[in-house]
Amino acid sequence: MKPAPFEYHAPDTLEEALELKAQHGDEGKALAGGQSLIPAMNFRVAQPTLLIDLNRIGELRYIRKNGVLHIGAMTQQSHAERDPLVAKHAPLLHEAIPNIAHPQIRNRGTIGGSLAHADPAAELPVVATALNTRFRAQSAKGDRWIEAKAFFAGLFTNSMQPDELLVGIAFPEMAERTGYAFVELARRHGDYAMAGLAALVTLNEEGTIKESRLVYLNVGDGPVDAVTACASLIGKKPGDAAFKEAAQIASQKDMEPFGNLHASADYQRHLSAVLTERALAKAYERVKAA
Amino acid sequence: MASKHPISVTINGKNFEHEVEPRLLLADYIRHDVELTGTHVGCEHGVCGACTILMDGKAVRSCIMLAVQADGHEITTVEGLAESEEKLHPIQQAFWEAHGLQCGFCTPGILMTLVPYLQENKTPSEQDVREAISGNLCRCTGYQHIVDATLLAAKTMQAAK
Ligand SMILES: Cc1cc2nc3c(=O)[nH]c(=O)nc-3n(C[C@H](O)[C@H](O)[C@H](O)COP(=O)(O)OP(=O)(O)OC[C@H]3O[C@@H](n4cnc5c(N)ncnc54)[C@H](O)[C@@H]3O)c2cc1C
Ligand code: FES
Ligand code: FES
């Protein structure tokens, strides 16, 4: 199908875009890569009356290390995928990006667009939650930082105000002695995953687990933080036994998968458990090697 | 009725100027206004890959982009690949020789996906090629001949250097 009619603005500066947002609020929808929004408009699931195309705003496209790693909201996913700063300072993000759709989609799709979209099946919200990423929201009146936990507000919902735009994302460095892994399972390379997670494991100096983070996609209405499973790992000796136990706790207690056409809720729990063991083992291998 | 926007786009080296409604999809603009019907439209939501074109040298889906967004950009469609009527692009030639197509519906999108891919990856493995075309659906070939053709293209392009 084709989109319903709408008005279109493509401002050259952030200031103009924020002015339009101030005037039109939710009626003025930001167009980033369009890789989620335009399909929704083609289906007429989305019928915005005004699109504010952010693609001409060069100042929203950057990757720089300034204390922590900062990525501009309009940075293309394919650009971040190849960027050496991302590989070095946010290796978890680097490992996750190739799992997003196909190269043709990542050539248009943006880091900020995927995060603002808040799709529970998407990779980036999970990575952002695991890394305690911070989001910079700006309006014509000023700007503020939002913590990852507060940014994702349910199915396809973020906590920004109608007059705000997401302008940048800050990825904090991982703690010392931390291993990471992003693992998922999709039916075909590039499809939305049936299950998957981002894992972080931090060791104490003597080699026991200091803390860990397990955040899952597609098993709830947003990124699912397996806090019970992570608590079970604290103080444990890393290895198959501890990882297996955490995988069982995460998949049975920490998540409420809905199930879908390709995977029932039980199967999603099973996959999540299997992938948890793999992710923890991979994260542990990496911290040992470092 | 939404207001129209003037656009100026270079397609296969030629400049085109039109007035377009914002909701006109780039794929439809290329097919209906510019009348280059080599770019195919299968699903209109980014899944099948039939509409893949190059924008500023990068493979993108033209069904989930607006024509107004192409203003000031350079586009290559499948019609822009062959040097002349007689001389095909080496990837097209390889698809011909290794039977990389049957009905041909998916072919333009697959070719436009592979052109930048083979520029970046000169000696791909079979697995690499399967991953590279994972965003393009083909209902006819079962993919084997597409993979064979791509590997052949990589080989002939290397040999030509
Ligand atoms: C075939 C296909 C397969 C896909 N597979 C995957 C996959 O496996 N995993 C995955 O994660 N994604 C997948 N996607 C989605 C893709 O990653 C999108 O790029 C992404 O979800 C949205 O990013 P975008 O830049 O295209 O945003 P858009 O589609 O332009 O915008 C998405 C939403 O976010 C809002 N928005 C965008 N930017 C801002 C901003 N700066 N401030 C405020 N609001 C903003 C828009 O208004 C809109 O509501 C797939 C898409 C397709 C077509
Ligand atoms: S028609 Fe564009 S991806 Fe199917
Ligand atoms: S050759 Fe018919 S769809 Fe691919």
- What share of residues of chain B is helical? 25-40%
Class computed from helices, strands and strand pairing of chain A: alpha+beta
Give Rg of chain A in angstroms. Answer: 19 Å
* Count of helical regions of chain B: 5
- CATH topological fold name of the largest domain in chain A: Uridine Diphospho-n-acetylenolpyruvylglucosamine Reductase, domain 3
User: Based on CA inertia axes, which overall geometry of chain A fits?
Assistant: globular
The profile of the biggest β sheet of chain B is: 5 strands, mixed
Ligands: flavin-adenine dinucleotide, FE2/S2 (inorganic) cluster
Strands of the widest sheet of chain A, in order across it, are 4-5-8-6-7
Q: The CATH topology of the largest domain in chain B, please?
A: Ubiquitin-like (UB roll)
Element order of chain A: H for helix, E for strand: EHEHEEEHHHHHHEEHEEEEEHHH
Counted by DSSP, the helix tally of chain A is 12
Your description of this structure?
The complex is a heterodimer of chains A (290) and B (161). By secondary structure, chain A is α+β, with helices and mostly antiparallel strands. Helices cover 36% and strands 23% of the residues of chain A. Chain A has a five-stranded antiparallel β-sheet. In chain A, helix 10 packs antiparallel against helix 11 and helix 11 packs antiparallel against helix 12 (265-289). Chain A is globular. By secondary structure, chain B is of the alpha+beta class. Chain B has two domains: 5-80, Beta-grasp domain (Ubiquitin-like (UB roll), Roll); 90-159, [2Fe-2S]-binding domain (DNA polymerase, domain 1, Orthogonal Bundle). Chain B has a five-stranded mixed β-sheet, sandwiched between helices. In chain B, helix 2 packs across helix 5 (144-159). The radius of gyration of chain B is 16 Å and the shape is globular. Chains A and B meet through helix 2 and helix 6 of A and strand 4 and helix 4 of B. Residues 29-37, 39, 54, 73, 100-101, 105, 109-110, 112-114, 116-117, 119, 122-124, 165-166, 192 of chain A line the site of flavin-adenine dinucleotide. One FE2/S2 (inorganic) cluster binds next to loops of chain B.
